[in-house]
Amino acid sequence: MICIPVTAKTNKEALQEIKRCCAFADFLELRMDLIADGNVRDLIAAIRSTADSVGIIVTCRKKEEELSANELPKAKSIIKDRGILKMDLLKKAIDLKADFVDIELTEGKVAIGELRDYCAKQGDVTGIIVSYHDIKKTPSVTKLQEIFHKCLEHDAAVVKIVTFAKSTEDNLKVLGMIPYAQKHSQKIIAMCMGDEGRISRVAAPFLGAYLSFAALDSDAQSAPGQLTVRQMKQINNLLQGNRPDKPAVALSSEHDLQNYVLLGNPVAQSLSPLMHNAALKEMGIDGHYNAFCVSDLESAISGIKGMDIRGASLTIPYKVSVMEYLDEIHEDALNIGAVNTVVNSNGRLVGYNTDWLGLMLTLKELMPVKDQTFVIIGAGGTARAAVYGIMKEGGLPIIVNRTIAKGKILSNKFNCPFYSLADLGKLKANCLINTTPIGMYPHPDQTPVESSLLAGYKCVIDVIYNPLKTKLLRDAEVQGCRIVSGLDMFVHQGAQQIKLWTGIEPSSALMEKVIRERLGEIEG
Ligand code: NAP
């Protein structure tokens, strides 16, 4: 439901605003602290006569809890002696049978109790919204939960929590309060202010917030970051329009959470959302996969728990650091020393690694692995996944890396040979796998291996998929090797993530198709 705040400077203007807003809103909030000569009786009557079905909230916001959309407040509050006048005003709204009156948690037990008793005396037609605002920051998840429970102590009909977002993670913390409130069978309004908080205003209605605030137009915003009604409706239509026609499939898990996130930094160029959303849609899963650029991993992880997100993908630089925040790590991921997939089972986070599975599925489509030799260029996370998978299948990896110390650490861990890049020419093997970023866009003419050294390999695999055919693969093709790009691995590791989250194998063909099309557009 959309609520438009009426923020006009005068009663006359507010009456005009009400006429314009009623057609677009489920609720109107009368911001009596901003309407200089506001007459609550006239204003409520105007809403009722214009659109009887529109709900009414009466608010007299405390100055300390208001952050105006503009530098200067739209109008000076007339509620000078707030303590007394505010209570009179809210009681009058209760007499006039407003649907809700809003009172700040910080007004305290006595004031909220007095208002609650007054509501009861008038037949409990009006509900109380107990609201909390932090106009400077977003507190921790624990603190938000404490605030929520304090609001409950006052028998709030609706709890409202609004904080200022300084980062993407702040949205996760506050949005996490929506499913938290649902578990307590409590109606909630939860969102963040500020430009960083916009995403919460979009996501909150889909997560089940009681209502969302939107301005009639951009001049009428009552809080920074607030979207206009038109923007809210466009986003709503777009997301509803993209919902699958098929009924949602039954998930293998005991609960039916179906939203997923990618956590990394940076994530703007990631093709995972495109690939995963195409697969989820095709499977008839009524969920969405969103990328979040994260700078505070710990907060993002608590956001995931709080928001009941079913699964997460981890990318650079969090594949290792995420491990300390998980409740359990699968043996494969533990041996590799990196997690790229998290499954949330009722708040218990379990880490997996599907990179190695993706690479092994790719490899096994290409050639046998047992007793075959593999030169692996690189000694980072992907190299670790490759060495682990090849050894697990009975293959013989040889590590080749630029930094000797790092290469040796890996070779000692898995007890396999190590050579420096300069010695690559001395080696012979069945297959060469590049796990470094050399040759990746925007440097498509770089290669980790001189062309002439590729002649002896039957197969050459590059984990890079942008561009699809790297210089390494172009050179290998000329040398008569079979070549495979990182696209196959990317699709397989993504498909395995979806399988872990939903218990169902998605269509790899579709996932590959959407990525190929997008890469085709990128490469022109
Ligand atoms: P990482 O942990 O940072 O390791 C990168 C490795 O590349 C290191 O061993 C590093 O050598 C080496 N390297 C980097 N630049 C180099 C250079 N200029 N010359 C020589 N060696 C260089 O990275 P990662 O997570 O393994 O990822 C590596 C690549 O795999 C990335 O391009 C990533 O996008 C790709 N990837 C693809 C998939 C897929 O599904 N297709 C999945 C995962 C990763 P030093 O030890 O000397 O620093």
Structural notes for this entry:
- By secondary structure, the chain is an alpha/beta fold.
- Helix content is about 40%, strand content about 20%.
- The protein is built from 18 helices and 20 strands.
- It has helices at about 10-20, 40-50, 80-95, 110-120, 140-155, 170-175, 175-185, 200-205, 230-240, 270-280, 295-305, 330-335, 355-365, 380-390, 405-415, 470-480, 485-500, 510-524; strands at about 1-5, 25-30, 55-60, 100-105, 125-135, 160-165, 185-195, 210-215, 260-265, 290-295, 310-315, 330, 340-345, 350, 375, 395-400, 420, 430-435, 460, 480-485.
- The protein has an eight-stranded parallel beta sheet with strand order 7-6-5-4-3-2-1-8.
- Helix 6 runs parallel beside helix 8 (about 200-205) and helix 6 runs parallel beside helix 11 (about 295-305).
- The site of NADP nicotinamide-adenine-dinucleotide phosphate has 25 residues, from helix 13, helix 14 and helix 17.
What's the number of extended β-strand segments?
A: 20
- Strand percentage lies at 15-25%
Distance between the termini: 43 Å
- Largest sheet: number of strands, sense, barrel closure: 8 strands, parallel
Q: How are the strands of the largest sheet arranged?
A: 7-6-5-4-3-2-1-8
Number of helices: 18
Helix fraction, binned, reads: 25-40%
- Structural category is alpha/beta
Rg from alpha-carbon coordinates: 29 Å
Query: Oligomer, anyone?
Result: single chain
Shape: elongated
Low-confidence stretches: 69-82, 242-255
Overall average residue pLDDT: 88
Could you say which small molecules are bound to this protein? NADP nicotinamide-adenine-dinucleotide phosphate
